[in-house]
Amino acid sequence: MNQVTKRRGWWFVKDVITQAELRHQWYILEKSRSGTAWIIIAVLMLLPAVLVTIYFMILVIFGLPLTWDFWSSDFGDNLIELGIVSLIVMNIALYLIVILITLGLSSNSISRERKGLTWEVLLLTNVNARQIVLGKWWASLVALWGDHAMIGFLRVGAVCGLVLSIEPYMGLRLASAPFGLSPVLWHSAVLSLVFIAYTVIDAMFTAALGVGGSVSTQNPSVVGGVVFSARFMAIVLFGWWVFSIYQRLQMGQDYIPIALFGLGGFGLLTWGALRVGEWWAVQGQVSEPV
Length: 290
Prior knowledge:
- The protein has 290 residues and is mostly helical.
- It has ten helices and no strands.
- The protein has helices at 3-7, 16-33, 36-62, 75-115, 119-123, 129-143, 145-170, 183-215, 220-250, 256-283.
- Helix 4 runs antiparallel to helix 6 (129-143) and helix 6 crosses helix 8.
């Protein structure tokens, strides 16, 4: 077991390819994110969104109403408004930034081997092309798990805020909850689990696109266009899926089937992207290992 990997708490990462790639990606991320200025800017941008997320979660858990008044000049209401604006902006901006970083890191994990003329050497070792692709893909996910976790956390905040606002601000009623639970708590918990699951699947999909696209020996411009088009279409589908769930939620209808259908569909897209990358890698393999 590599001591660096073990020291960081990723003791279950035992694959040699994954360990080597993970060390390199950690180095790249630490080098690009070092510096007090970068850290201060990141904290200032995220802090209001994080605080309002915690605030919404407390209201949901303890069954407290959302008493925020958009038109009020009260200092507390203004702070909540600032947090809500930050939550909306960061949900979008951080998501797009992390998508680009994930695509870049995962794609570079393969293209770096090609440029360094070590790809052929890897294919002649005791691991095959499919294992190399999976190792690079998994390393890209592990290296950026904190960024994706933050996206999931902010999505939970957005879910709690939307559920809290449906009854008092929109004049609508949430569907009743089972087991005598509060409708606000039930729907917030269910939707939070749905969007956390989506965040995990979406991270896997993005990394699979990056690795799979860079493995291909086809025209890089064409492959890059296909990768970005696939990623853009997935974002559009995600927006349609969220809107459909929200419509059913505010109308008191059952949204769980469409939520599960969406998760299954995005899971299939992830599996397909990874399988295409594996197929490309196997096709370009010099020789099968003994």
